[in-house]
Design a protein that fits this description.
With 298 residues, the chain is mainly α. Helices cover 77% and strands 0% of the residues.
Length: 298
């Protein structure tokens, strides 16, 4: 600022000097002063003022966490700027402002524009993840899954958590076949973890609601094999209890193998002794088994 003041003292007077001061105030994070200078320039120039002054004011208000005023001035900037004058950051800024104001629909619209305009692949990938987050806020799990998929397939930094979230988004969208496919990938890539088996089993159970095909059974059995190694863990115990209950119901209702069903319910009760449903089902199955024995003379 000292150097700029020396320059202005020696230079011919003109509006350009005021622009330099305003820009430097913003760059120096003196946002209130930058807003004040920019407004005075707009008042002096009227309709001939540069649209970027509105953008500078908007950016300053955004840094001051005043999203409402930031949005007002960004709208003025968009109204005054030519189409060829926009840069990616303009769309990202609009997306961030709308996000801060909890207006995900509008935020999504601008992030999509930013992604279409962005030439840097790393930034484009980051926008995919952001769009997935915004769709999740709306509970639009189908679109969340689409953008998580784009992120996972394009990002060299994608992790098993990203793959899991992709599959879970499809499950939440009730697109169970898609969820089955993604959790199938998870099973193959991370065979030592139980999450892929658990969520693939749940996806298949949601597809095979009558249990007629038993398509969830192999995944529940594999889940029991993995989760059974650590019954002290709360999550694995939950997975085991669900697995035992599902297989017991399949054995009882589809296979009519009551002894096998009782065995699985008893395994469930060894982990959850107060489970009233399992206790009741065991009693019913034993009665049915007894009736069958009397009829056959066993």
């Amino acid at each position: 600022m000292d150097c700029l003041n020396h320059y202005i003292a020696c230079a011919d007077p003109g509006i350009r000097n005021d622009y330099l001061v305003t820009d430097l105030l913003y760059s120096s994070r003196k946002y209130d002063s930058a807003i004040d200078h920019a407004r005075r320039l707009i008042d002096r120039q009227g309709k001939t003022s540069e649209p970027r002054l509105y953008k500078l004011i908007a950016y300053s208000y955004k840094e001051l966490h005043d999203s409402s005023k930031a949005l007002d001035y960004m709208k003025k900037y968009f109204n005054g700027q030519s189409d060829t004058g926009f840069v990616v950051k303009d769309y990202v800024t609009m997306g961030e402002i709308y996000d801060a104001m909890n207006q995900p629909d509008s935020s999504i619209r601008y992030y999509v524009k930013a992604g279409n305009m962005e030439k840097d692949s790393i930034r484009r990938i980051a926008y995919c993840k952001k769009l997935a987050e915004l769709y999740k806020k709306q509970k639009d799990y189908g679109n969340q899954a689409l953008w998580l998929g784009r992120y996972y397939q394009a990002s060299p930094k994608a992790t098993n958590l990203d793959l899991f979230n992709w599959g879970l988004a499809w499950y939440m969208a009730k697109e169970y076949q898609q969820a089955d496919s993604i959790f199938g990938i998870y099973e193959a890539k991370y065979p030592e973890q139980d999450f892929g088996y658990y969520w693939r089993a749940r996806s298949d159970a949601a597809i095979d609601t009558s249990m007629s095909t038993g398509m969830a059974i192999p995944h529940y059995l594999k889940l029991i094999e993995i989760a059974g190694k650590d019954t002290a863990n709360r999550t694995t115990r939950k997975h085991l209890i669900e697995s035992y209950g599902y297989i017991a119901a399949y054995d009882a209702n589809i296979k009519k193998d009551y002894p096998a069903a009782i065995e699985y319910f008893e395994k469930l009760l060894s982990l959850d002794p107060e489970n009233k449903d399992a206790i009741r089902y065991v009693e019913i199955l034993k009665k049915n088994l007894g009736k069958g024995e009397k009829k056959t003379g066993v």
